[in-house]
Amino acid sequence: MTANITILIADEMTADRLRLKTIFEQLGHTVIEAKSGPEAIKLFDPKAIQLVCLGLAEASQNSRSVALQLQRLAPDMYIPIVFLTRELDSDALSQCLEIKGADYISKPYNSALISAKLAVITRVLMMQKTLAEQNEALSKYNEMLLYGQDVAKVVYENITYSNCLNDPALKTFHHSSHTFNGDVILAAYKPNGGMHLLLGDFTGQGLSAAIGALPLADIFFDWTKKGFLMRQILPEINARLKRILPDDMFCSAAFIDIKANDKSIDVWNGGLPDLLLFTPQKKQARKLISKNLPLGVLSPREFEFAIDSLSFQNGDVLLAYSDGLYEAKTRQGEGFLEPKLAALYHSENGFTGGLDCLVAGMKQEGVLERSLDDISCLEVSLNSHIGVHSADSHEPSGTRGAPANFSFEYRLNAESLRSVDPLPYILQIITTVPGLSQYASHVFMILSELYSNALEHGVLQLTSAKKETLEGFSSYYEEREAALLALQEGFVNIQVSVVSNSTSGQLVLRVTDSGSGFDFESVECDLSRNDVPYNRGLALLKQLCEKLEFADGGRSVSAYFGWQQE
């Protein structure tokens, strides 16, 4: 704005109006005249006029009414109103200034005083315009920032969300205290059936907390799809977060590995509140406490991997939640969670209502209105069908023109068995065959059963009978890890052969181990025995394969899997 402004003078006294107009024009300003209040309202253009000089007639109430109408015509603009008065009526002036009048000018007019007052008003107007321009620029910047946040939020949700969260066995709840949620719930089906789940809670809130979820989700989904195990995925996530996150940032997390085929779960808890396993036969929930430090705290060499391994029955429910729920308060400032869980613990009907009851309680008791942290909850209704028929039917890019006939062999000695899981790498090679990739879930299930049987029962000489009880199930996997760590000799040999043409194909997997073999004819193969949490592997293999052949006293097993090209 220049020093010259446009001024509207409204005064019934012609001589006074012309005198003031002359003074303003001598100072370089543009003047618009109005002989009355109604005419001033008619001539008033808030986009063209920067100052109004309003004569204070004897009926001062009329002047105040005109002033109020002018202000209503420009509600979002600052256009000062200066009152013109012949006599200094303090009460009238006070009333005018109360309605946001900027100043007054006394008659008869003093050119020097008017010039000084006008200079002050002009400076205020210039500052007001500068402020308006800055506000407009800030508003545009805020719009761009919000748009950027919306785009980032969509990208974030697309990366961290998977259709597996729509599985009927899962219920989830997210409440964010900011635009971005620092909590994350990830779910992915495993190629051999079952599911991987991860509930994570990053330090802080908002974008700074949510950004760590992107590399975490990338590794989680990619490595699960390729068939890597929980004990391989977690160290990789920890190493990545340790490398990229600031020292004061980490992710408290719970990783759940659901093994639907043998009705068991492994749980790794690093810094989250206790996970709760509700069993219909027991009134008290089993607590799965944190045994590890959060992800991103320890170096790869120091990383901890202490897990809980346990079997489940159809109908058991697993509940996990972030510390936002643990710290939640009601409207009365009292802790929300403990009374709710106590009611669930002692319910004669078990975990009735579950997560739905917790969410309803949070809404009813005002928890969500008062939350200062993100709140996330995960409920899993455990059953032996989770992820069993969940293979993606699409064929990965790059498979057309891949070799249709080939064979290869993997031989793992004791050192390799201790440190390497060959299954993801073998699966990647096998699924390059045109038409076979859509059966990746079946193939991985067959391969993992053959390999685990060869390793656990052949090389390590473990017996499945230990899985009959909950305690025995846990000790079985503890013994497996200890025996594998101490292994000094033995081998597992994996031979893969693929023959296919334009109409059909056959995959042959032959796994041989250095163990003492077993009486395969005496093993009961009945998948309908839901009461037995072990000895289901061979029954599953016979169901999936065209043919299953044993040789060398049970030390060698060949599985034949055929498919039709589409």
TrEMBL record:
Boundaries of every Response regulatory domain copy: 6-122
GO MF term list: kinase activity; phosphatase activity
Q: Keyword Ribonucleoprotein, does the record have it?
A: no
Q: Which domain of life is it from?
A: Bacteria
A single Pfam family it belongs to is: SpoIIE
SMART domains, alphabetized: PP2C_SIG (SM00331), REC (SM00448)
For biological process, the GO terms are: phosphorelay signal transduction system
User: What PROSITE patterns does UniProt report for this protein, alphabetically?
Assistant: RESPONSE_REGULATORY (PS50110)
Q: Which UniProt keywords apply?
A: Hydrolase, Kinase, Transferase
Q: What is the recorded name of this protein?
A: Histidine kinase-like protein
Organism expressing this protein natively: Marinomonas pollencensis
